[in-house]
Amino acid sequence: MNDQVRIVEVSPRDGLQNEKAIVPAAVKVELIDRLGRTGLRTIEATSFVSPKWVPQLADAAEVFAAIDRRPGIAYPVLVPNETGYDRARAVGVEEIAVFTAASEAFNRKNINAGIDESLQRFAPVLERARVDGVRVRGYVSTVLGCPYQGEVALADVVRVARALHGMGCYEVSLGDTIGVGTPAKAAAMLRAVAAEVPMPALALHFHDTYGQALANVLACLDEGARVVDAAVAGTGGCPYARGASGNVATEDVVYMLHGMGMDTGIDLDALADTGRWLAARLGRQTGSRVGRATAPA
Ligand code: HMG
Ligand code: MG
User: What CATH number is given for 6-294 in this structure?
Assistant: First the structure.
């Protein structure tokens, strides 16, 4: 069994986008640079969405231009449309992520478009990315439940994931946006998607609202998933998903993986330090259990 797991660190984007008080750009830059020294290979840096929709990330260009981009690390950013693509490319972005959902109702709240309309909106972005040699990740939100419509049909998750992969996304991240999933459901969802999209092209993106995220990750590792999105200090949440709370904490995922003999290439001590540092900047205790357990006295 392949025992290498790639972590996609999303704290600079997902972790901060829902913070009410504006985090200074300098703190965001320092966060990304600290993360870049922990062994992470993918760090989602920010989001070129409308600043009216997500004021916290209005400084995306300033932040991206200031980070110390290290060789061997990918710094994807969220892009919802061609305007976002133009803004991202103007500051040298080389990898983007487009995002939609398996729920029509959530998509209307989050991106002001239905599922098919969102896919149409991505088509020219993906075409330009292909020509420019820009790598594209795709997100499917609400894969295990929607705050507005409740149950989400597996067939809708599979359809949207297949569409994103078919349009050229090298990886499709499956988002339990509001953290309502449980392990057997998460595994069944992954199995259904993996029947249509190759497992190596799938990532897990689990929020921890109901305390199930780590268990859900484990269940999906058993199914063969090897890419996990996570955020240090358990930060995160989507402003347009009522009740969404933090992502699974990266420190907790890495501790579990290393304990199982799996390799992430990440220095857990440096990661936990960074998580505590970020929590202190946000004025709270770290949301990572490992971060708390290993805090200096
Ligand atoms: P809209 O209002 O329908 O867009 O929003 P529009 O095209 O009509 O434009 C409205 C205004 O925004 C115009 O400006 C545009 O120029 C401007 P005005 O003429 O009024 O001055 N605009 C932009 N400005 C900067 N950058 C842009 C941009 N686009 C338009 N890219 C839109 C549609 C998609 C833009 C909006 O709904 C939006 O930005 N939504 C983003 C919401 C968001 O970021 N949510 C969180 C990320 S998703 C998530 O967290 C889930 C995930 O973590 C996975 C999971 O957990 O499941 C990924
Ligand atoms: Mg998320």
Answer: 3.20.20.70
Question: What's the pTM?
Answer: 0.98
Interface pTM, i.e. ipTM: 0.98
Taking the CA of 235 as reference, the closest ligand is 2
Pairing of β 6-9 and β 227-230: parallel
Whole-number CA gyration radius for the chain: 17
Q: 193 C-alpha vs ligand 2 centroid, how far in Å?
A: 19
Our answer on whether the CB atom of 144 is closer than 6 Å to any ligand 1 atom is no
Q: Quick check: is 238 catalytic?
A: yes
Cβ atoms of 14 and 236 closer than 8 Å: yes
pLDDT confidence bin for 132, thresholds 50/70/90: very high
- Alpha-carbon distance of 206 to 143, in angstroms, equals 10
Distance CA 137, CA 76 (A): 8
Measure the CA–CA gap between 271 and 286, rounded to whole angstroms: 12
Domain residues of the chain, as ranges? 6-294
Q: What is the pLDDT of residues 233-252, one digit of tens each?
A: 999 988 898 878 899 999 99
Alpha carbon distance 273, 31 (integer Å): 11
Ligand 1 atom 8, closest CA: 112
> How far, in Å, from the CA of 106 to the mean position of ligand 2?
13
Give 106-123 as a DSSP string: HHHHHHSS-HHHHHHHHH
